[in-house]
UniProtKB/TrEMBL annotation, chain B:
Origin organism lineage: Bacteria, Pseudomonadati, Pseudomonadota, Alphaproteobacteria, Rhodospirillales
Gene3D superfamilies assigned: 2.40.50.100, P-loop containing nucleotide triphosphate hydrolases
Protein's job: Part of the ABC transporter complex PotABCD involved in spermidine/putrescine import. Responsible for energy coupling to the transport system.
Molecular function as annotated in GO: ABC-type polyamine transporter activity; ATP binding; ATP hydrolysis activity
Name of the protein in question: Spermidine/putrescine import ATP-binding protein PotA
Cited InterPro entries: AAA+_ATPase, ABC_SmlMolc_Importer, ABC_transporter-like_ATP-bd, ABC_transporter-like_CS, Mo/tungstate-bd_C_term_dom, P-loop_NTPase, PotA-like, Transp-assoc_OB_typ2
Similarity section: Belongs to the ABC transporter superfamily. Spermidine/putrescine importer (TC 3.A.1.11.1) family.
GO CC entries: ATP-binding cassette (ABC) transporter complex
The UniProt record lists the keyword Nucleotide-binding: yes
Catalytic function, reaction form: ATP + H2O + polyamine-[polyamine-binding protein]Side 1 = ADP + phosphate + polyamineSide 2 + [polyamine-binding protein]Side 1
Organism: Skermanella stibiiresistens SB22
The EC number(s) this enzyme carries: 7.6.2.11
Length: 328, 381
C-alpha cells in the first residue's frame, strides 16, 4: 500500500479578482488576520465549543467556588469591588471540602463508577458478538441490521426507559411470562434494584458500543484472517491474535461512549433504581433542586468532570491512533 | 532468461519414474452458476517453480486458493505429497501462501509477523528466534526485525511476506502475484532474487501471475489458463515457440496471425494458402488435419525480416510486400508496423545492430517481409 501523496498546501482559491470591492476587502482583512476559507471552517466547531461548553463550564466552575446564599441567584459573587479600585476574588473551597467530609458523596461517586463499569463490561460482552455478526453478514444485510440497532433512537429515550417499568414490575410482562412458564412460583423483585438499573443502562447504551465496534470490525481485512489460517492458526486462535487486537480501538471507543454518560446517568436510576441506589447524577439533582445549594451542586459536577477527564483523554489518544492506522 | 543448470539437470516432468509432488485431479470449482475452474488436471514436481499464467477471471487465483485450502473444489481431488487434501483445512496443510496484498499483521513487528506461524506450531522459543533471524537474513532484512509493516517500503513488505511464508518450510509455497505491487525496476531485480531464494531453500513454488514476462523469466514450467481451463503446460520456451492455441500465442508475447487453408500436407512440411498474408506459407512441420481445413499461422515479430530489395533466396513463399506505416524506436530494437497489400497489419521487430543516424527503412517505404520455414506455427484451434 503506498500512501497517496497529499499536497501539503492546497492552493488558496482565487485571489478575489472579479468580486465586488467590499468582498475583496473583507477577504483581504481576514487573510491578514490569518483566516483563510479553511481557517473559517475550522473556526466553526471551536466557536461552538467555546459558546456551549467552555463558557458554561467556566460558569459552573465559578459557582462551585462561591458560597450558598438566600438570594437570586442563590450564591455569593466571586468578584467584588472593595474600597475604590481593588478587585478581590473570594474563592470558597467550602463546597469541595464538604464533598470530602460527607461520605455520601464518595459513596455516590464510587457507586456510579461501579455501575458504569459493570454496565460497560456487559455492553461489551453483548455488543461485540452483535457487531461481529453484522460485520461478517452479507453486504446487503448490513444496512438493515444496523438500522435495527439505531431504530430505538426513533422513540424518546424517556419513554423507552418508562416502558421497562411495565416489563420489570412485579405484575409486569417478564414476571408474568416466567410464572406462566413455571420457572418461578412468586414474582421476582427486579424493578427498583441495581439489576433493573443495569438492564436500563445496557439497553440504552448498547448501540453506542455496537456502532464503533462495527466500524472497526467491518474495516478489518479478511485476508489477514486467511493469512493467520494459512500460518496454522485455528479460527479461535486467529480471532484472539488478529481480530481482537485489531479491534482494540473500537473496544476503547465503544467502552468510553458507554462509560462516560453512564457515570453521570440520572434518568435511568431515578426511574428504575431503588431508594438505596445512590448515583452521583441523582445526588447532583438533589443538591440543585431540593437543597438549592448551587455551589455544592457545581462542585459535584466539577468533581465528576475530573473523574471523566482521564477516560476522555484516553479516548482521544486512541481515536488519534485509530486515524493514524487508517491512513496507512 | 532460463536457468541452463536447471533445464539440463532437472526436468522431472520428462522422467516417467518421477512421482508428481502436487497432483490436481479433475478439479472443478463453481460459484453459483459460474464455473471458475473447469475440470483441471495438473502435475507439479518437487522443486519446481511453476507458474499459473492467465488474465483476470481465468481461474488461476481460484486454483491457487484451492491449493491453500481457502476454497474447496466442487468436484475433483488435490494431492500434496501423496496426501488427499479434500478434508484438510488451511491451518493443517503443509502449504504456505504469500498474499498479493502481503496481508502482514499491522499490529505486529516484522519479527512477530514472521514468528506467528512458528508459534502456532509451538516451536521452542530459541528455535523460533534462530529461524526468524535466519530467514530475515535470507531476504536481506536483517536490521528491520523491530519495525512495523507500515514503516517499511513496498519492496521490504514483499520480503517480509516472503519470509513469513518461508519460515515454516512448507512443502509447497503459493505466491499470488508476488511482484504485482512493485515498480518495474524493483520487479526485475526481485524476480531473480525470488528464483535464487527458491533454489536455496528447494521448496516447490507455485506462482500465480498475469504477467507473461514474469512467468517466462522465473518458471520451470508455465500453465496458461483461460476461462477456467488450462490451455497449455510447458517450459517457457515451449509455450513461446510452440503455442498450442491461438489464445496462448496471443497471450504470451506478441504475434502475427494469418488465416489460411491447407493446400499440401506432408510429414515434413505443410503449405498453406493465405489471402491475408498475400503469399503461400511454407512450414517445415506437418499437421494432423485434413486438407482444406481452415487454420491460423502464427509468426513472432522478431522472426520476420524486412528488406527494401527482394531477398536473393526468394521462392515466393513466406514472402510478402507491404508499406511501412509506423515505426517505434525502443533503443535496443525497433518495432515496424507494416500494412501488407492484403490490408493486414503485421508487426516486425528488428534489433538495432548499428547506431542509426539515418534509418535504412523509414515511413511509407515499400518493403519485403520474409521469414524462415521454421518460424511459423500452425494452429488449428
Amino acid at each position: 500500500m503506498t500512501a497517496t501523496p497529499i499536497g501539503k498546501e492546497i492552493q488558496a482559491p482565487g485571489s478575489g479578482a472579479g468580486r465586488p470591492l467590499p468582498v475583496r476587502l473583507t477577504i483581504g482583512l481576514l487573510r491578514r488576520l490569518g483566516l483563510t476559507g479553511r481557517g473559517l471552517v475550522i473556526l466553526v466547531p471551536y466557536v461552538w465549543l467555546l459558546l456551549f461548553f467552555l463558557i458554561p463550564f467556566a460558569i459552573v466552575l465559578k459557582i462551585s467556588f462561591s458560597e450558598a446564599a438566600i438570594a437570586i441567584p442563590p450564591y455569593t459573587a466571586l468578584l467584588e469591588w472593595t474600597e475604590e479600585a481593588f478587585l478581590t476574588i473570594k474563592l470558597n473551597f467550602g463546597s469541595y471540602i464538604f464533598l470530602l467530609t460527607d461520605s455520601l458523596y464518595a459513596v455516590a461517586y464510587l457507586n456510579s463508577l461501579k455501575i458504569a463499569f459493570v454496565s460497560t463490561v456487559l455492553c461489551l460482552l453483548l455488543g461485540y458478538p452483535m457487531a461481529y455478526g453484522i460485520a461478517k453478514s452479507p453486504t446487503s444485510w448490513r444496512g438493515p441490521l444496523l438500522m435495527l440497532i439505531i431504530l430505538p433512537f426513533w422513540t424518546s429515550f424517556l419513554i423507552r426507559v418508562y416502558a421497562w417499568i411495565g416489563i420489570l414490575k412485579q405484575e409486569g410482562l417478564l414476571n408474568n411470562l416466567l410464572l406462566w412458564l413455571g420457572v418461578i412460583d412468586t414474582p421476582l423483585q427486579i424493578l427498583y434494584t441495581d439489576v433493573s438499573i443495569y438492564i436500563g443502562i445496557v439497553y440504552s447504551y448498547l448501540p453506542f458500543m455496537i456502532l464503533p465496534l462495527y466500524a472497526t470490525l467491518e474495516k478489518l481485512d479478511d485476508t489477514l484472517l486467511e493469512a493467520a489460517a494459512d500460518l496454522g492458526a485455528k479460527p479461535f486462535g486467529a480471532f484472539l491474535r488478529v481480530t481482537l487486537p485489531l479491534s482494540v480501538p473500537g473496544i476503547v471507543a465503544g467502552s468510553l461512549l458507554v462509560f462516560i454518560p453512564a457515570v453521570g446517568e440520572f434518568v435511568i436510576p431515578s426511574l428504575l433504581g431503588g431508594p438505596n441506589t445512590l448515583m452521583i447524577g441523582a445526588v447532583l439533582w438533589n443538591e440543585f433542586f431540593a437543597n438549592r445549594d448551587w455551589p455544592v451542586a457545581s462542585a459535584v459536577a466539577i468533581a465528576l468532570l475530573l473523574f471523566l477527564v482521564v477516560p476522555i483523554m484516553l479516548f482521544q489518544y486512541y481515536q488519534g491512533k485509530q486515524q493514524e492506522a487508517a491512513k496507512q | 532468461m532460463a536457468q541452463p543448470n536447471r533445464k539440463i539437470t532437472l526436468q522431472p516432468w520428462q522422467d516417467p519414474k518421477e512421482q508428481p509432488y502436487v497432483r490436481i485431479e479433475k478439479v472443478t470449482k463453481k460459484f453459483g452458476d459460474f464455473t471458475a475452474v473447469d475440470d483441471v488436471s495438473l502435475s507439479i514436481y518437487r522443486g519446481e517453480l511453476f507458474s499459473l499464467l492467465g488474465g483476470s477471471g481465468s481461474g488461476k487465483t481460484t486454483l491457487l486458493r484451492m491449493l491453500a485450502g481457502f476454497e474447496m473444489p466442487t468436484s475433483g481431488k488435490i494431492f500434496i505429497d501423496g496426501v488427499d487434501m479434500s478434508n484438510i483445512p488451511p491451518y493443517d496443510r503443509p502449504v504456505n501462501m504469500m498474499f498479493q496484498s502481503y496481508a502482514l499483521f499491522p499490529h505486529m513487528s516484522v519479527e512477530q509477523n514472521i514468528a506467528f506461524g512458528l508459534k502456532q506450531d509451538r516451536v521452542a522459543r530459541d528455535e523460533i528466534k534462530r529461524r526468524v533471524a535466519e530467514v530475515l537474513e535470507l531476504v536481506q532484512l536483517g536490521g528491520f526485525a523491530k519495525r512495523r509493516p507500515h514503516q517499511l517500503s513496498g519492496g521490504q513488505r514483499q520480503r517480509v511476506a516472503l519470509a513469513r511464508s518461508l519460515v515454516k518450510r512448507p512443502k509447497l509455497l503459493l505466491l499470488d502475484e508476488p511482484l504485482g505491487a512493485l515498480d518495474r525496476r524493483l520487479r526485475e531485480r526481485t524476480q531473480f532474487e525470488l528464483v535464487n531464494i527458491q533454489e536455496q531453500v528447494g521448496i516447490t513454488f507455485v506462482i500465480v501471475t498475469h504477467d507473461q514476462e514474469e512467468a517466462m523469466t522465473m518458471s520451470s514450467r508455465i500453465a496458461v489458463m483461460n476461462n477456467g481451463w488450462i490451455t497449455q503446460v510447458g517450459t517457457p520456451a515451449e509455450v513461446y515457440e510452440y503455442p498450442a492455441t491461438k489464445f496462448v500465442a496471443e497471450f504470451v508475447g506478441s504475434v502475427n496471425m494469418f488465416a489460411g487453408r491447407i493446400l499440401e500436407d506432408e510429414p515434413d512440411h505443410v503449405l498453406i494458402q493465405s489471402e491475408e498474408a498475400g503469399c503461400d506459407l511454407y512450414i517445415n512441420h506437418g499437421v494432423p488435419v485434413p486438407l482444406g481445413t481452415p487454420v491460423s499461422v502464427a509468426v513472432r515479430p522478431e522472426k520476420m525480416a524486412l528488406s527494401k530489395e527482394p531477398p536473393a533466396t526468394a521462392t515466393g513463399r513466406n514472402l510478402s510486400q507491404g508499406t511501412v506505416r509506423e515505426i517505434a524506436y525502443l533503443g535496443n530494437l525497433s518495432i515496424y508496423l507494416i500494412e501488407l497489400d492484403s490490408g493486414k497489419m503485421v508487426r516486425v521487430t528488428q534489433p538495432n545492430f548499428s547506431r542509426l543516424t539515418e534509418m535504412p527503412i523509414t515511413w511509407e517505404d515499400r518493403v519485403y517481409v520474409t521469414w524462415h520455414p521454421f518460424a511459423g506455427v500452425v494452429l488449428t484451434q
